[in-house]
Amino acid sequence: MPTSRRTFLAATGSIAAAASVRAGRAESAIRGIDHLVIMFKELDPAIAAYRDLGFTVTAGGEHPTGTHNALVAFADGAYFELIAFKRPNDQHRWWDAAQAGGGFIDFCMATDDLAATIQAFRAAGVNMSDPVSGLRVRPDGYRLAWVVALPPKPSVFQAPFLIKDQTPREERIGNQTNHPNRVTGVAGITIATDDVARVRGWWSPVLGQPGSEIERTDIDAAGVRFIAGPHAIDFVAPKNPASPLAGWLKARGPGPYCISLKASGGKTGPLDETKAGTRITLMQT
């Protein structure tokens, strides 16, 4: 049976609660997910695997910090960053996550006011860094530039990193948003946590919404859902030791766990995790 976004919301939380959060939230500078980071040991096999899964993949380029990437851009403005280390860099914030197995390791939120969002997170207890410069050189030689603000431990991978482009954003992500598998965007992401209340205390004032209580029967977990633009962000903890999240938290610690994508037709359900490098589910819009 095809998996629809409505079925997903009904099974993993409350449609009514999500709708009421949308209607009642205060104005926030955050407008949704900017991109999701999926780490691989090698980039070329990852590109081939994602094309085999029905995604249009474009070459991204190289960062001066030792990584290179490829992009899967979606019509809703979000994108996947498929990334790998081209050379070792044990000072990189993603190095340890890469050594632990990679996969869906981090997420970036788009904001209309970087300074205000940094201050909002700091006021909520997440000591976001001041903006630091980043760049990437595309295969055609174009130099992309931006600044990012990064969360520290213990909020890293449960709070997002934030970005502000210094070159046009469309140059960073490209315009190849049509995919043979008919994916149109991100429905939501799930973040594993060992302290839902603490994370809720960070996100609720930043987004100007209380969040909605959810039960995730698919992974035997419970927590809170926030809505950021068109995207759902679930922060959940295992309900008992048999939950797959319990083992994940023990092995990897709090952080991104899985992704749900919207598709306008085509096949639905989970993608081959050995190809995707992480847990991704397609659902009908």
List the helices and strands and how they pair.
Elements: H1 5-12, H2 15-24, E1 30-40, H3 43-52, E2 58-62, E3 67-73, E4 79-85, H4 95-99, E5 103-111, H5 114-124, E6 132-137, E7 143-149, E8 161-165, H6 169-173, E9 183-192, H7 196-207, E10 212-216, E11 221-228, E12 231-238, H8 244-252, E13 255-263, E14 269-270, H9 273-276, E15 279-284
Parallel strand pairs: 1-4, 5-8, 9-12, 13-15
Antiparallel strand pairs: 1-5, 2-3, 3-4, 6-7, 7-8, 9-13, 10-11, 11-12, 14-15
Can you give a write-up of this model?
It is a single chain. By secondary structure, the chain is an alpha+beta fold. It contains 9 helices and 15 strands. The chain has helices at residues 5-12, 15-24, 43-52, 95-99, 114-124, 169-173, 196-207, 244-252, 273-276, and strands at residues 30-40, 58-62, 67-73, 79-85, 103-111, 132-137, 143-149, 161-165, 183-192, 212-216, 221-228, 231-238, 255-263, 269-270, 279-284. It has an 8-stranded mixed β-sheet. A 7-stranded mixed β-sheet has the order 10-11-12-9-13-15-14, sandwiched between helices. Helix 5 (114-124) packs antiparallel against helix 7. It is globular.
